[in-house]
Amino acid sequence: MTSVRVLVGTRKGAFVLTSDGTRTDWTVSGPHFGGWEVYHVAGSPVESDRLWASQTSAWFGQVIQRSDDGGQSWRPVGKEFRYDGDPGTHQYYDGTQVPWEFKRVWHLEPSLSDPDLVYAGIEDAGLFHTTDGGHSWHELPGLRAHGTGPSWGPGAGGLCLHTILQHPTDQQRLFIAISAAGAFRTDDGAKTWTAINRGLVSDGIPDPDAEVGHCVHRITMHPSRPDTLFMQKHWDVMRSDDAGENWREISGDLPSDFGFPIAVHADEPDTVYVVPITSDSEHYPPEGRLRVYRSRTGGDEWEPLTTGLPQEHCYVNVLRDAMAVDSLDTCGIYFGTSGGQVYCSPDAGDTWSPIVSHLPPVLSVEVQTL
Fold first, then answer.
1. CA 206 – CA 92 distance, rounded (Å)
2. Which of 214, 217, 263, 304 stands the most exposed, by the fewest C-beta atoms within 10 Å?
3. Neighbours of 22 (CB within 10 A)
4. Which residues are 295's β-sheet partners?
5. How confident is the model at residue 125, as a pLDDT?
């Protein structure tokens, strides 16, 4: 029978949750690297038992952990992330230029075709990769060489490259998102990049045609329609149907257009999920009611999904990397909260139940269908 593995990164370690195809009974393994911040845990699409974890400590720095047995054992790899040249400077909140720093790995994106190739998005915003299974990591310098690089400023969470999307058939095309610079696309294997922010509108940016400066929280796509992108930004849910060349707002009848995660149903490319929160200063659900919103029309109309979710006195947040889907016959939707709950809906969002509660605050959720 098909099984599911849910990979969870938290403020105090990583957890691996497994179930059969019914997704009712779960086995919990962890914490792995207890006490460390684990910003992201990801599994290889090529070798299902190869997992990667971004392990971070203010005392001991950044470590990448790798497992080749589905999370039963781990070993550290690639402690050194090397810039190939002068990192240069970027703009801080007050407009001053400050040195580029390496602080942590926010996101790991294993290759769709090569088990030894993994991309890493870091803070301060840069793109790295390994081609030898994690033993060495080198910057892909073309991104920061974009002419706007020195003007990138940090969002509230830092100047982080938090999203990496791979085109399903064109290995030369990648999409990335940076808070607070915007979204970018490469069509030549990361040698050069194009800012893809036309149509985004952000407070504090007086020029509606500004090439960068937008605080993008997350972008996603369905592999069957890789030119259609969905975005949750700092205010506004957006859609592009031309690989990011132009964006239009699809916030519609959401109770708030502020949030962090956005996900697409595994089998229905027009079915999209978001988790609205109250505002950029009030990071909790509107009215204290935890609701996932689903659009079956690509963002034209939204419906609240509440069955099994707390509908009063709930003040948790769901972060940008903390929502994912599986690829079973009936698509499962998963998300983790700042309160340490991980929820699963085995019926595409109609009903929800917690897989586990009382974890440390959840930073990321990824799902593997095995």
1. 18
2. 304
3. 12
4. 272
5. 96
